[in-house]
Amino acid sequence: MAEAATGFLEQLKSCIVWSWTYLWTVWFFIVLFLVYILRVPLKINDNLSTVSMFLNTLTPKFYVALTGTSSLISGLILIFEWWYFRKYGTSFIEQVSVSHLRPLLGGVDNNSSNNSNSSNGDSDSNRQSVSECKVWRNPLNLFRGAEYNRYTWVTGREPLTYYDMNLSAQDHQTFFTCDSDHLRPADAIMQKAWRERNPQARISAAHEALEINEIRSRVEVPLIASSTIWEIKLLPKCATAYILLAEEEATTIAEAEKLFKQALKAGDGCYRRSQQLQHHGSQYEAQHRRDTNVLVYIKRRLAMCARRLGRTREAVKMMRDLMKEFPLLSMFNIHENLLEALLELQAYADVQAVLAKYDDISLPKSATICYTAALLKARAVSDKFSPEAASRRGLSTAEMNAVEAIHRAVEFNPHVPKYLLEMKSLILPPEHILKRGDSEAIAYAFFHLAHWKRVEGALNLLHCTWEGTFRMIPYPLEKGHLFYPYPICTETADRELLPSFHEVSVYPKKELPFFILFTAGLCSFTAMLALLTHQFPELMGVFAKAMSDIFCSAEFRDWNCKSIFMRVEDELEIPPAPQSQHFQN
Question: Glycosylated where?
């Protein structure tokens, strides 16, 4: 019985909702008809006359107070709406309307939405996995001591956020530590040092780890697992301690390079020893994996030091050798460092060869790959490109390929052109980036802006064509053209990665909600009414009385604008304009 009553109520509610959704015009006319039929019992005309008399007795001070109060209230609503929109990206009034009024006016029921979500579970999960905002290590990240700290000393601003530095600490613990670190005293100290938040504490721990190795103590190391054969060896140098000092204590790139060379000597020895013992058990295999990460990191940073110090050809050779020696370690994205160095040498044929290997459909893309490919195609036509000539004769095949490459790059990361065209100011790139986000755009433009300027006409071609990308993807959050839809979570992640003094670029740009514009107009209009009422109380009082008479009297159809102004002239006793003699005759 109860179930039948509940079902009847649900059916009745659905019928009412349906009627409000599709038959609202019929309901509106029914209400008007009822008001017309009941106008005599309800004494509508008498009530309107009473209201009109009451309004006629009001003084101008009342209207000043009324308009001033309404202006103040609408201004407070505007301030609250603007704050809510800047913080949460949506209008509070619209959100409340959608959450509470939409179900009453025929919105989607929660059960039906859950059913639809469950039926499309596979597609939704695939889309979530694709659009998940994964943070990547910046392959071109700067040195903390020699570059980031110097910026802080000069400007007093912190270029790195706590979230970014915390991610770096997690990377260091992942790449530079293993479960057997407690067996070596220096590595045990460094394992704690990577967890330290205070930079001075980390540096002190690194010095302590190096001092332990200065003691010529001896340790017994098994030559073969589960064997009775032992060899006496000196404790090896701690490579990770040199890495920390080179990254955070060195104040110049030259000092960092010296420390990295010492780290290379220590890390190479550890790598060779662990390479011989890697098949003797899981513990040795973990040590070898850690020593491999340490060695690759040191060699990559040495190549970056050479690039910073102007030895670009030496840096290119070191990167090529590193990629040949460890071809499977793609997590460091060394090819992006190589592309930047080759562009500095203007070795465009070598750049094209690297792109042919890494710009593959099965490999993850980056702004470096997409925009470098666009730069190479733009280089072939940019020196002779003219928008006026192109509009007259049309685009040639080479120009069309260049424009398509630019559109492809802009679709992948739409934030880069503003930095390349210097429409937004650059800051130091963070240690981690979000692909397709503002952080990746900053990291790319910081190093590659000079390469675009070096190619004659490339920035002009980019300026003329990059905005055409948005016509092909009118709804980038729902459907892309060459890539997956643009992820929604980039703005939130970029705000965590980038410092607070930087204005984060948002795509697609959010438009102001209707209610913010409405409250702004309402506030301005009521403030203007309050000012006019205060300055001209008699005139505004006459207008208010005339308007109340128009809308409240039963004979409002006979009124027009002429009668309003005639009444204003009578109330204020404005004399008629003098007429000329010719007009009187």
Answer: 47
Region 7-11 average pLDDT: 69
With 0.85 as the threshold, say if the pTM is over it: no
Percentage of the chain surpassing pLDDT 70?
72
Taking the C-alpha atoms of residue 526 and residue 523, their distance in angstroms, rounded to an integer, is 5
For residue 290, give the nearest of 170, 177, 171 by alpha carbon: 177
Of the candidates 406, 128, 211, 174, the one whose C-alpha atom is nearest the C-alpha of residue 290 is: 174
The backbone region for 119, taken as left when phi is positive above 0, alpha when psi lies in -120 to 50, beta otherwise, is alpha
Handedness of CA 250, 253, 254, 257 (dihedral sign): positive
Q: Using CA of residue 22, residue 26, residue 32, residue 38, what is the dihedral sign?
A: negative
d(CA 200, CA 223): 38
User: Using one digit for the tens of pLDDT, what is the confidence trace for 349-382?
Assistant: 999 999 988 877 667 788 999 999 999 999 988 8
Per mean pLDDT, which of 49-53, 98-102, 118-122 is the most reliable? 49-53
Q: What is the DSSP string of 436-501?
A: TSHHHHHHHHHHHHHHHHHSTTHHHHHHHHGGGHHHH-SSTTT--SSSSPPPTTHHHHHHHHS-TT
* Residue of 198, 138, 133 lying closest to 167 (CA atoms): 138
Among the listed residues 505, 483, 484, 482, the one whose alpha carbon sits nearest the alpha carbon of residue 493: 505
How many helices (H) and strands (E) the chain has is answered by 30, 4
Token couple for 82: 């603007």
pLDDT at 553: 56
Measure the CA–CA gap between 257 and 301, rounded to whole angstroms. 8
Q: Position 200: which residue type?
A: Q
Separation between Cα atoms, residue 575 and residue 572, nearest integer Å: 9
